[in-house]
Design goal:
This protein is of the alpha+beta class and 410 residues long. It contains eleven helices and nine strands. It has three domains: 185 residues, no CATH class; 68 residues, SH3 type barrels (Roll); 132 residues, Alpha-Beta Plaits (2-Layer Sandwich), CATH 3.30.70.
């Protein structure tokens, strides 16, 4: 341990120097206090130091609480998070200082266990660093919660980015605190860093998949192709569901049959991914078939359907809208309907689509036409044999099925 750390701390020297000054100023009062404690000067020192620690703790708690109420009243979230985070760590720091000064004072008073002074001061330094890290973690957690709440009402903030930055800062605080504490115990960090470098290379080769997943998680946080609550699907893999959680190594997706699906983050760097939750509209793309015998009514039908879509409150006429006689099919005259709805909700979209299709069927019926379906006409031969004689019969045909439209095949 260094010479500076082996000596008494600045706080110990300050307290003891102040105590000696008070004793020299009021020697008679001090002697009176010693008599009150039955001549046990060490007990008087312990009582005074711990009492002073208690008073300082109460004083700072009152000050911090007052500032906390003030910041809360003025809705100042950043300084309020500081006052909330510092209350408990500051109290522990004050009591740690008071107890350590008391122990060092007792050791000096009795001149016993003097070798314990250096370990006590070293332990105090390490505990102070842990208290500082504790405060940093508390403050980061409160800021993360506050910024996530802001992200719900303000599009300028992104909850995924906030969470990623908070995790990076927490890891940084953890590593820095560990290095400082190790250095306080005279651990050679140069050798540790060198060993960590070679070890990191070895671990990197051995755990390249894990590192790939971690880096993939970082790319997800940076690029933000999806967020928790989004519906995603991959045309390359059998992946489809709602994102539940994005971790550093894996992403949890709940499929539509309510099964959890855990995907390594590295997978997303090599597959295509769709995010239907971010679509601006939903598309209606249908083909309606009409009978061949209604070909003369096709222009009126397509015009009525187009007019109906343009006047429909759930159809966005600013998007592409197509209604045209499109194809002479085998049994139908096909009308293509291509349009977009305002809604993006899956359930509401199907309700709108149902309403559109029912209105289309009404338009076809009002035009005196009918929907077509595949049909087949069967023709019988034009002669029949009766009692061994060939008698002519009428060249009539009898369809097996009523012809409702479309071409005939023999």
């Amino acid at each position: 341990m260094s010479q500076a750390e082996s000596d008494k701390s600045v706080e110990t020297e300050f307290v003891m120097g102040g105590l000696e000054s008070l004793i020299s100023l009021f020697p008679e009062f001090w002697q009176g206090l010693i008599l009150v404690f039955a001549g046990q000067e060490w007990l008087l020192l312990v009582t005074l130091l711990l009492g002073l620690t208690f008073v300082i703790d109460v004083f700072f708690r009152l000050v911090v609480s007052r500032f906390d109420r003030r910041f809360k009243r003025k809705n100042q979230h950043f300084p309020k998070s500081l006052t909330e985070a510092i209350q408990s760590p500051l109290s522990v720091y004050i009591w740690l200082g008071g107890v350590s000064i008391t122990l060092v004072t007792l050791i000096g008073h009795f001149d016993l266990f003097t070798r314990w002074v250096e370990p006590i001061e070293g332990a105090r330094f390490s505990l102070n660093m842990l208290i500082l890290a504790w405060f940093a973690f508390r403050w980061l957690r409160r800021m993360e919660s506050h910024l996530k709440a802001m992200a719900e009402v303000d599009s300028r903030w992104d909850s995924i980015t906030v969470e990623a930055v908070a995790k990076v800062l927490k890891i940084t605080v953890f590593v820095f605190t560990g290095m400082v504490v190790l250095s306080a115990f005279d651990v050679d960090l140069t050798g540790l860093i060198a060993f960590g470098g070679f070890g990191g290379i070895a671990v990197g080769f051995a755990a390249k998949d894990i590192l790939g997943n971690v880096l993939g998680g970082m790319m997800l946080y940076m690029d933000k192709p999806f967020a928790p609550g989004d519906w995603v699907r991959s045309p390359d893999r059998n992946i489809e569901g709602v994102v539940q959680k994005i971790g550093w190594r894996i992403t949890e997706i709940q499929t539509f049959d309510k099964r959890p699906l855990y995907i390594p983050n590295g997978t997303f760097s090599s597959i295509g991914l769709e995010n239907p939750s971010r679509m601006t509209h939903r598309r209606i793309y249908e083909t309606v078939g009409v009978r061949y015998c209604d070909v003369g009514k096709m222009a009126g039908i397509t015009g009525q359907i187009r007019q109906m879509l343009e006047q429909h409150p759930e159809i966005d006429e600013s998007q592409t809208l197509i209604v045209n006689f499109n194809l002479f099919n085998q049994s139908t005259l096909d009308i293509m309907i291509y349009t977009f709805t305002h809604t993006r909700e899956w359930v509401k979209f199907h309700a709108v689509k149902e309403d559109v299709l029912l209105k289309v069927s009404e338009i076809v019926a009002e035009a005196g036409a009918e929907m077509a379906f595949p049909t087949r006409t069967l023709y019988l031969e034009d002669t029949v044999q009766v009692s061994g004689m060939n008698l002519p019969s009428e060249p009539a045909s009898k369809p097996a099925d009523a012809q409702t439209g479309g071409k005939s095949s023999g």
